């Protein structure tokens, strides 16, 4: 089977996350948690205009009219957004389902990492960690009021200037060893996918 395109990407197409859009059935509890516990300021509060829920103008919004859609500043010029689904209208999500979000990890400085851990403890919020994830990377895991699993990730040695991509980037040899375990790939396919990696 011939591939549709063969990219030679040296740098990513995007500049990062504009916003992640998640769902809640309790916007007040969500605001309290993200503003007070996690320190993400509320920056925009609106209702989706009429006709964009069940009407012909729906472009992928939740299928309910005039639901709340609120945005929080998650730092580095990107947003976390929530739609408020009417209570009882949708089942709780399964974070391990195909197409679901297993968890959302936010990068924080070492100082903020300690602050968030202290807030979780003071609020009595169950959490796991801090635990080592990869060399130089610590994580702390917990759930928001909607059952969404969150992680705060910290690279202590980076101090106040976390460098996420350098921390996670493998060598070609390291990534090649894993890619070779995929079914139906050729050495040529693998080498094209490794083009952006060092050595």
Give a summary of the structure in a few sentences.
The chain is α/β, with parallel strands linked by helices. It is built from 5 helices and 8 strands.
Could you characterize the architecture of this molecule?
- With 199 residues, this protein is an alpha/beta fold.
- The chain has five helices and eight strands, in the order E-H-E-E-E-E-H-E-E-E-H-H-H.
- The protein has helices spanning 27-37, 110-122, 164-168, 172-179, 187-193; strands at residues 19-24, 42-47, 68-73, 79-84, 104-108, 127-134, 137-143, 149-154.
- The strands form two sheets. Strands 1-4-3-2 form a four-stranded mixed β-sheet, with helices on one face.
- The chain is globular.
- The two termini are 29 Å apart.
């Amino acid at each position: 089977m011939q591939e549709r395109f063969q990219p030679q990407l040296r740098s990513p197409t995007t500049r990062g996350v504009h916003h992640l859009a998640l769902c809640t059935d309790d916007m007040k509890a969500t605001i309290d948690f993200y503003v007070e516990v996690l320190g993400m300021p509320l920056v925009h509060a609106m209702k989706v205009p009429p006709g964009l829920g069940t009407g012909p103008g729906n472009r992928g919004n939740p299928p309910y009219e005039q639901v709340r859609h609120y945005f929080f500043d998650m730092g580095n010029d990107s947003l976390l957004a929530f739609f408020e689904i009417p209570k009882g209208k949708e089942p709780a999500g399964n974070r391990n389902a195909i197409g679901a979000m297993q968890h959302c990890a936010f990068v924080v400085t070492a100082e903020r990492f300690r602050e968030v851990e202290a807030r979780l403890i003071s609020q009595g919020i169950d959490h796991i960690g801090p635990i080592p994830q990869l060399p130089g990377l610590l994580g702390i895991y917990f759930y928001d009021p909607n059952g969404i699993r969150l992680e705060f990730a910290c690279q202590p040695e980076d101090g106040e200037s976390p460098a996420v991509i350098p921390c996670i980037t493998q060598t070609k040899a390291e990534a090649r060893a894993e890619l070779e375990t995929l079914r139906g790939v050729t050495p040529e396919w693998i080498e094209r996918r490794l083009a952006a990696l060092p050595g």
